[in-house]
Specification:
80 residues; rod-shaped; alpha+beta; binds zinc ion; two-stranded antiparallel ribbon
Length: 80
Amino acid sequence: MRILLLIAAIVGVFMIVRTLLRSQGNKSAEKPERIKEQGAVVRCAHCGVHVPQFEAYRSGKRMYCSRDHALADHSSKNDD
Ligand SMILES: [Zn+2]
C-alpha cells in the first residue's frame, strides 16, 4: 500500500512539474499581448499617476485617475 502511494506521489509531482514547465512557456508568450489589450495609458493631470484610458475620467481636454481629482483640479485652477 505504501509503495502505491509513493508511485502515485511521484507521478503526481512529475505531472505538476510538466504542467508548470508548459505554462511557463505560454506565459512569456502571452505577456506582450496582455499589455496591448489594456490599450492606451493616460496621465492624471492632477497627481501624475498613470491609469488605463478606460479607467480614466475626462474633464475637457484633461484626463484624471479619479472623479475626485477631476473635480479638485477643476476647482483649484480654472484656466484652459
Ligand atoms: Zn490623480
